[in-house]
Amino acid sequence: MKENITQKFSAEDKKWMRTALNLAQKGEGYVSPNPMVGCVIVSSNGKRIAQGYHEKFGKEHAEVQALKTVKNKDDLIDATVYVTLEPCSHFGKTPPCALKLKDLPVSRVVIAMQDPNPKVSGKGIAILKEAGKLVEVGCMEEEARKLNEAFIHYMRFQKPFVIMKMAQTLDGYIAAPDGSSQWITGKQARAKVHEWRSKFDAVMVGRNTALTDNPRLTVRHVDGRQPKRIVIDGPLSLPKELHLFSDQYSSNTIVITHNRGKYQAGADPMLTLLSNDSFTGQTLLVGKKENHTNLDEALHELGKLGIASILVEPGLDLGGALIRQNLVDKLHLFIAPKILGGGTKSILGLGINRIDEAIKLHDSHYEMIGDDLLFTGYF
Ligand SMILES: [Zn+2]
């Protein structure tokens, strides 16, 4: 079945869809919780006559952006539209793209993947087919799904796609016996982390990491937008002087607590606990699970805020808790060519005893980033 789908598309189709996917990716970090979408329009004699992508949340969709670049309207006669996601069919911030495309003289629409939103999936395709267009779905579908993996997950589960990033030595330590951990990996690996921070909606740390490292979790070594910063602070008692609460990005900080008593103590818990004029962030109250902050509930609450992807940069406790509760979707693990022989292990406390109980990751991928090895895999 899958082979048939692949054969349906020519090398030319794949070339244009790849171009559209590359365009789509330019929106990474700017369009969430919308998907990244790219569009290329090719004339009946095989020339590219238009292209565009969804650049920013709330701005025009890829198809509309592409149509703006058409110079000669006659070129659209019998042209093919390549779009990485099914054209939308509902009136949102902009009128539906499927209605726009249906009135054009184009004859064929090639779509990488159907819209994963169950409320609209297939409707855009139906509108185009009813208008007599040849609609073909599934060109470079695997690549398109990969590109929007966070969005697809968010649509399906209404909670963010969770990517965990860790850096360890060859013997599995994330910090030395004295607690120092800066830096296990090299410069290039650290720059990569900053690049990820700029692409995901939020970065998350636990209480211990916030206290020990006093991280900023900002994007510094590369250009890009600043993510939301989430800190799990069950007792809601982290000191207000931490960078997360006092720097210029403090409005980007979200504190998650289960301390109902403290939360309700004042009209504004932040005023009592983090009485710091510059802190303008948010506090989310969630329940407890096994005497700790209920992380799954926290993720659902974050989803309601429109956060579709989170890069977790955990210390020992948060990493183990998230994995144990099956809340991590993807792992980025840097392995530095270093040996410590002691210190803090990267992951502990999963309650696994036998080798056949080990958690197996799939779709693994390895690459070198400077001197460090980067493992990527899915839970
Ligand atoms: Zn649209």
Question: Describe it for me?
Answer:
By secondary structure, the chain is α/β, with parallel strands linked by helices. It folds into two domains: 2-148, Cytidine Deaminase, domain 2; 158-378, 3-Layer(aba) Sandwich (Dihydrofolate Reductase, subunit A). The chain contains 14 helices and 18 strands. The chain has helices at 2-8, 11-25, 62-68, 97-102, 123-130, 141-147, 149-157, 187-199, 207-213, 243-246, 260-265, 269-273, 295-304, 316-324; strands at residues 38-42, 48-53, 80-83, 108-111, 134-137, 161-169, 173-175, 202-206, 228-232, 253-257, 282-285, 288-289, 292-293, 309-312, 330-336, 344-345, 362-369, 372-378. The strands form four sheets. The chain has a nine-stranded mixed sheet. Strands 2-1-3-4-5 form a five-stranded mixed sheet, with helices on both faces. Strands 7-16 form a two-stranded antiparallel ribbon. The protein is elongated, with a radius of gyration of 23 Å. The protein starts with a helix and ends with a strand. The site of zinc ion has 5 residues, from loops.
